[in-house]
Amino acid sequence: RRQGKHAAALQTFDGLIALQSGNAAAWCDRGAVLASLGRHREAWASYDKSLALDPDLAVAWYGSALLYSSLRQHDAALKCFQRVLALEPDNAEAACKLGEALRPLGRDEEALMAFADALRIDPDYPFVRGEVAWLKLHRCNWAGLEAAIEATVRGVREGKLASMPLDLITMSDSAADQLACARAYTGHICKNPAAALWRGEQYGNPRIRLAYVSADFRDHPVAYLIADLLERHDRSRFEVFGYSLGAESASRLGARARNAFEHFSIVKDVGDEEVARRLREQEIDIAVDLMGPTLHSRPQVFALRPCPVQVNYLGYPGTMGTGFHDYIIADARVIPPGMERHYAEKVVRLPDSFQCNDSRRSAVAQAPGRTGAGLPQVGVVYCCFNNSAKITPAVFDSWMRILREVPGSVLWLFAEHPILQGNLRKEAQARGIDPQRLVFAPRADYTEHLARLSLADVFLDTLPFNAGTTASDALWAGVPVVTRPGEAFAARMASSLLHAIGMPDLITNTPEAYVALAVRLGNDPAFLAATKATLAANRSTKPLFDTDRFRRHLEAAYVAMWERTQRGEPPVDITVAAVS
């Protein structure tokens, strides 16, 4: 089982149980093997049998908890982890997993206590330090944040499993740190991969077989961005497959993404080895990992090397740090020349921007009035709809300086949780700003959100983790985006978008310049109006929202990758020439 030979392990446990039907540990181990094979109902039955034989078998409770977590049944997982800790109070692994189960339930303070327990038991327990820092950022609970971030970054630099990659990019824009973190993470997750499934064979199919692999073919930023591209792929050259790692989505966007594929498979409950085997048996030429190391990703599938070309794109703005992702889709701004050494993949630079976009974005016909959106009738509206974990104390300091210098202005944020709202209002007051100048937008349908975005005057970006989809949404809605780039991919996304829409003047290089530009836009109505007019004109004439132009560039990259494998040549950095 430790070697990943699940079929053989299952046969062995079945033989053992035939001889010792009352062996609770054997039933438990059988459940773990079945879970690895994606046979979840049978796995539960095995765990239940194990616990019926021995109700105090902590490892069986733990296996059940992991199974519930993998299926996103967080309440059930929570109860199982609590039972494990009742039996084994010094189980650092269970304490960590308890914290992870509490996170999606919005019980962040309890999660922090669980993570603190894990660190008390084992100060170097994998990824916990990063989770603590991320949770503090997510709730804008900045007490002790600086020390938590310093401990996380120090651990990464010491080669420890201090953080998951997605957590780290909220804390550091160092490309070297992010590469070290990704390598440690994927090396830990993808231990002892089996022999590669693809061994150099060439396929004779009439079209290049292109597969997109993701759990996010649903109401999710990745689907918002990629749906139009999927619909436009050149079917005379590419046969397009979708592999969904998530549950079937009943949403309009989920249906749109699903219908964009010629072949669509839901493999949520299928084990990694089986998913990889299907990719190989379907002779997929190019597999695109749309997730990277994000929630519900399956890097083990790619570790099995089922396809000649494997690409890291869109879902994670950074390197996977692996030897089994051949290329990363980028541009010359998110990965400038000379930075290739910080990316494990070969760099593919598209001519305009790395980000695909939906030129068919739609909003409801009638935008709400300011009053309906909870905004004042007069005054400049600054906004930022980025995830709250991207809001650092330094960024917030800049925002409060902007509000101080633009009388009557407000800052419009997305922050549903009352604790988060309270923390931000408290921080505003501590900086001498009336807390009521922070306005919090409720969750809304995507089309309604696009409509209300037009009520804002200026979008204020974050660093070290820039806006991605949220910046594109703002630009589509006619709202200028003020940004400041850092070093790594995630810290340069908005700069890429602004270049692609022909508005590089909105990119600043220092905190002072960032504040000064935002203040000028707020205090100079003519300058703001001219900026908005330029943005409105550029939306239909510049490359950012020209999905068909983007499609031609990306397909040219895919063809270049494929042709190299046909010639038996290894991956290399690729720069795609612009097409008309």
Please summarize the sheet with the most strands.
8 strands, parallel
Give the CA-based shape: globular
Beta strands, count: 13
Distance between the termini: 54 Å
Mean pLDDT: 95
**Strand portion, in percent?**
5-15%
* Helical content band: 40-55%
Low-confidence stretches: none
Strand order of the largest sheet: 3-2-1-4-5-6-7-13
> How many alpha or pi helices?
23
Rg calc: 25 Å
Structural class: alpha/beta
SSE arrangement:
Layout: H1 6-19, H2 24-36, H3 40-53, H4 58-70, H5 74-87, H6 92-102, H7 108-121, H8 128-138, H9 145-157, H10 165-168, H11 175-189, E1 208-214, H12 221-232, E2 238-244, H13 252-259, E3 263-266, H14 272-281, E4 286-289, H15 299-303, E5 309-312, E6 327-331, E7 346-350, E8 381-384, H16 393-405, E9 410-414, H17 418-430, E10 438-441, H18 446-453, E11 458-460, H19 469-476, E12 481-482, H20 493-500, H21 511-523, H22 525-539, H23 547-566, E13 574-575
Parallel strand pairs: 1-2, 1-4, 2-3, 4-5, 5-6, 6-7, 7-13, 8-9, 8-11, 9-10, 11-12
